[in-house]
Amino acid sequence: QVQLVESGGGLAQTGGSLKLSCTVSGRTLSSYVMAWFRQAPGEEREFVAAITWGGTTYYTDSVKGRFTASRTATKTTGNLQMNSLKPEDTAVYYCAAGKYPPRENVRDYDYWGQGTQVTVSS
Known about the structure:
There is one protein chain. It is built from no helices and eleven strands. It is mainly beta. The strands form two sheets. Strands 2, 4, 5, 6, 9, 10 and 11 form a seven-stranded mixed β-sheet that branches. It has a four-stranded antiparallel β-sheet with strand order 1-3-8-7, with no helix packed on it. β4 and β5 form a beta hairpin. The relative contact order is 0.32.
């Protein structure tokens, strides 16, 4: 089976930075989209960013200019660099993998990481 493992969550102050990583293992995936979602307590899981196999990126408006999605040359690991963090970024962050083209709905992704907590203090 396909497995996604996340790391890099933690605590940051307003204006600080964190970097999340997501490593894919198991059955080979090709031409897939890696996306990032987040979920605050009592809220629905929402789209944050996505990157295609070819490296094209997409971001929700609230993180544009602050977050950057990337992939390693082997395509086995994706990263989400989060800069200029705000308290409203506090959430559990999930990476996900799905078929092309990139979508913003959680139902469009087949595989999910376990989630990692990001907390930004004011």
